[in-house]
Every structure is written in C-alpha cells, then in structure tokens.
Design brief:
Order of helices and strands: HHHEEHEHHEHEEHEHEHEEEH
Helix content: 40-55%
CATH architecture of the largest domain: 3-Layer(aba) Sandwich
Oligomer: single chain
Shape: rod-shaped
Number of domains: 3
CATH superfamily of the largest domain: Periplasmic binding protein-like II
Largest sheet: 7 strands, mixed
CATH class of the largest domain: Alpha Beta
C-alpha cells in the first residue's frame, strides 16, 4: 500500500467528498480518484459507496480507516527514529584509516565528532590505505579516510578532503649548504632511498615519477609506515619523499628542476551501494568541516 493512497483514503473518508478531498490535498479530482481506485484494486475490496455526489465508507472502508491511520503514524515514527539529530545518532561506526592520517589529520575531527555525537561507539582500524578500500568494498568497514587511489576504483566512491604534497628530503646537517641541497632525479636514483612499498599508493606515485625519467631509485629499505621512514631519514640512512606535514628541523628539503614531487590526495571512501548509517553520515558531515577549501 502506497502512503499517498492511504492518505487520500483518509481525507476522502473525512470529507465524504472526492472534490473536497482533492482541494485539501492540493491535487486534481482525477488524481485522487486514481489513488482510491489503485488502493481498492490492491486490497481487492470496495472502500466507498458512491451515491451521486455523496460518498460513504463501506464496511471494508470502515475497518481500514483506523488501520490506515496507524500505518501512517508508524511511518512517521520510523522517519523520526532515523533522524540524524545529534541526540538520536547512536550505534557503531566502523571506520578505517591509515596510521599517518590518524596521527596528523583525524585528532581534531574525532574530538569534535565525540562532542557532538557522544552516543556513537567508534570502531576504528588503522590499516594501509589499500586495506581501507578492501574493507569498504567487503562491508567490514563502513567508510575509510585514507590516501586515495590515483587511478580511482570504479566500484567505490571517493571524495578528496586534503591535498597532501610530498617533498624530497634527507637528514639535516649543520655543515650542509643550501647549494648542496639542490640535486636531480638522476643523482637521487644513485643514492640509498627509504620508500613506502611499491604496492602502496604513495610508493606508486614516487616510482612512477622516476619511471617517467627512465630511472629506478636505489632502495635501501622499505616500510609502509611514514613515521618510521621519517625517523630513518633523520638518522641519515637515506633520502625519501614525505608529506609537508612531517617536515621539521631535523630534515632538509631537497630542491631542483626535476624534483617537483607529486601530491597525494587524502579523503573519504564509501560504497555507493551500501546505505550509510546515521553515524556514518554524521561523521562525514564533521570531517568535511576540516577539509581543504575547494
């Protein structure tokens, strides 16, 4: 039964007139007659006796009236229960994010989310960004805040929140002049590098940059944890490419014409065929407040 048909039935029964009911609902009389006819066909009963201009409920119509009122009230109650008002949002939010984003981007987001939606239980998993995509695809995670796949993934929806430019860096040395910080991809390719694994989106961005110049970096160590890479570079074990948000006095930024390091895009990943919970929609609304201006 369509709620519009039930509503039309109740208004006609109240006014005992199709024309008056049509005016009350701001629709045409043929439209309201069509709704009543469809409801009668669906229930396989006659709901009204039409005696000239007079309309009277049949016995079946009389039985339906309180039930129709109850159905419409229940539908209203359901809509209200699914409201995204802060006081009504609860349940578990299954969120996946990378260690780097969790450390450098999400702290203020999670703080505000908890203040606004204290009834939501957060189930947060720290994984590689590639795993975040898989969890959303499989439904084990409702949404992910990760490094976005530069190639995109057609079955999932992504939304850029932050632009995250990388910089080529090496350990700071008080004896290093600004001139010696200038280098080229060719020179870097011959020096030990500490990079994310080739299966990560960040690793792919860096390797593709060298590949376009027909070069291959000399890998000394690999790890998917950017904080670990930063520590090893600062200790002098090689160069790397890290986000600007990780730069500090113990690192030197390398420069040169060929060293325009690529930029990562960080953002939301959701599944277009999975209905988002109220908790997920609430989190999305909060994290967007911290996104880069577009």
């Amino acid at each position: 039964m369509d709620p519009q048909q039930l509503r039309a039935f109740l208004v006609v029964s109240e006014h005992e007139s199709f024309s008056t009911a049509a005016q009350a609902l701001a629709i045409t009389q043929p439209a309201i007659s069509k709704r009543i006819a469809a409801l009668e066909a669906d229930l396989d009963v006659r709901l009204f006796d039409r005696l000239g201009r007079q309309v009277r409920l049949t016995e079946a119509g009389t039985l339906l009236r309180p039930q129709a009122e109850d159905i419409l009230q229940r539908m209203t109650d359901v809509r209200q229960s699914l409201s995204v008002e802060p006081e009504t949002v609860s349940g578990v939010l299954r969120l996946t994010t990378s260690h780097h984003i969790g450390l450098h981007r999400l702290a203020p987001v999670l703080r505000l989310f908890r203040q606004r939606f204290a009834s939501v239980q957060l189930d947060i998993r720290f994984e590689d960004s590639e795993v975040g995509y898989q969890r959303v695809r499989q439904g084990t995670g409702e949404l992910a805040v990760v490094t976005l796949d530069p190639q995109g993934q057609a079955d999932l929806t992504s939304e850029v929140l932050w632009h995250d430019p990388l910089r080529f860096i090496q350990a700071a040395d008080e004896h290093t002049s600004s001139a010696t910080r200038r280098t080229t991809l060719e020179k870097l390719a011959k020096q030990p590098a500490i990079l994310p694994g080739p299966g990560t989106y960040t690793g792919k961005l860096i390797n593709e940059m060298f590949a376009r110049a027909n070069l291959r970096p000399l890998i000394a160590m690999q790890t998917n944890y950017l904080e670990t890479i930063r520590m090893l570079v600062a200790a002098g074990y090689g160069w790397s490419a890290l986000p600007e948000t990780m730069l500090a006095d113990d690192l030197h930024v390398l420069s040169g014409k060929s060293l325009a390091a690529p930029a990562r895009q960080l953002g939301l990943v959701t599944h277009p065929r999975h209905t988002a919970s109220a908790a997920a929609n609430a989190f999305i609304s909060v994290v967007r407040e911290f996104a880069d201006a577009r």
